[in-house]
What does this fold into?
Amino acid sequence: MFVINDCVNPAIIEILRDVVEGPEIDVIHGHITFDGHLRVSAVNNLVRNDIPVQTTLETINRANKLLVPLSQMPADQKFTAISFNFSGGRLQTNMKYPE
It folds into this structure.
């Protein structure tokens, strides 16, 4: 659980900070894809309260700094994407692993 608590969630929160307006009332969902070194390569389908939004390259770079420890993960534990939902101040994630 180290990965979720110490690296991935803070990186997602960094992306959310860029688009959130009211943390208790906003509903935000999106899909993050990662490269082979577990750096964010894209943030897709980012939607806040049914309105598409975008994050900045600067925000993605800040998120990637939080993910640096993941580059040491064994290949069989690496994931390729995360879908997330943020609602009522709570973050839910669903990781996708290679087949």
